[in-house]
Amino acid sequence: TKTIREALEEVIPVKQAQLKKLVEHLLGGMRGLKAMLWEASVLDPIEGIEFHNKTIPQCQQELPPAAGGKEIIAESMLWLLLTGKVPTEAEVRQLSRELAEKGELPEYVEKFIDSLPPTLHPMTQLGMGVAALNHESKFQAAYESGIKKTEYWTYTLEDSINLLARLPTLAARIYRNVYNPGQPIPAINKDLDLVGNYVNQLGFGENKDLTEYLRLYIAIHGDHEGGNASAHTAHLVGSTLSDPYLSYAAALYALAGPLHGLANQEVLRWQLNMQKEIGGEVTHENIKEFLWRTLKSGQVVPGYGHGVLRNPDPRFMALQQFCDTRPDLLADPVIQLVKKTYEVAPDVLKEHGKTKNPYPNVDAASGCVLYHYGLTQFKYYTVIFGVSRALGCVTQLVWARALGLPIERPKSLSMEAIEKLIK
Ligand code: FAM
């Protein structure tokens, strides 16, 4: 009698051989497959992301910043994503106030988060906290009471606003628990924007440059059309009429993968290793050697490559531009290393010849500025991405319910069925 392991050991090589034969017919990760409606943004391989046809520089020009600030804020971006319109300053201030008023966490969530071991990855904690917030879901309660389909979107919007309001408070509490246990968390300031409050609660409120950086960061990470793993997950889970909390909790666990959002944590770890190995004098030559060592050891170069983009990511360019205007950032050795890596990595990746896109994505730049400003715990970086990506995901949830989009259910095929198709 065979064990289940022995039975599998026999089947796997047969399937592997079958797959090899079929490989050119399989849709590798559904790349390029047009299968989803997503209104808020479209990703062009060359031009990069456009939010309702507006590029990042256009958004920087047109969207109202925080009082006394220059960068795009989360509220302006959310308004644009949801409505397709540029908000007025008064509209943005009103939205900031609404979010601030709804930002407190329920006590049971505070207690739950405080009970988690500080060694549990911050992204795992964030997803758990967001899922627990579904206790509060207005959509779920209304669904149970028997609402009409045409009313779904209003309850989805209400949950979405509550989720967006609470995400930074939750994320800041996780930061406090993991890195500064016992430290008090400042109360939400009703006159401040969402990210202004988030930075305050993280304990960096005095640093106006970091606040501006995170405003820009959170606005431009907000949406990247629908096919990326986190956005698609939120959409898929939401299509079952799971409420926005559960849908977004699922999305966060897609974001937590190293090929997706966790790449920003990985980039900084990798760049710091590079710095340690290279030592004093950083030249293009020794960066190249380090890149080849990474590639030859079978690892990916984190922060490079993309499923859709075939040019440097305009989000990377916007974050680089932020550095270019500040002498303290330009003088930072890690920021210089990121810049120098960008000067050589595309050629190395072209020569390596595997990746379809040898250029940097947003994660190549996002962590080094945080590091410079003293937010040095890079296991936390994806949480910041997670605070941001909710903007696009909840926008889609509201529109999916408003348009009555159906449950997602693509067709899968076995290898035999594919073979029959291509014979
Ligand atoms: N370094 C080394 N090899 C790479 C590479 C990189 N940066 N990017 C792609 N490749 C390889 C890839 O592993 C694949 O190899 P195999 O044929 O051996 O499987 C080959 O090149 C073709 O891949 P592709 O078609 O160019 O890329 P995919 O669309 O399959 O994957 C990424 C896209 C982003 C997952 C991939 O480029 C990658 O792993 N990059 C590094 C991780 C990263 O930075 N992720 C963040 C992406 C980001 F924008 C985000 O989600 N935040």
UniProtKB/TrEMBL annotation:
Write out the GO cellular component annotations: mitochondrial matrix
Subcellular localization(s) per the UniProt record: Mitochondrion
Write out the GO MF terms: acyltransferase activity, acyl groups converted into alkyl on transfer
Question: What does the record list as coiled-coil region(s)?
Answer: none
Keywords, in A-Z order: Mitochondrion, Transferase, Transit peptide
Where is this protein chiefly located?
A: mitochondrion
Report any one BP term from Gene Ontology.
tricarboxylic acid cycle
Quick check: keyword Lyase in the entry?
Answer: no
* NCBIfam families (UniProt xref): PRK09569.1
Task: State the family named in the UniProt similarity comment for this chain.
Answer: Belongs to the citrate synthase family.
This protein is called Citrate synthase
Q: Which organism does this sequence originate in? A: Meripilus lineatus
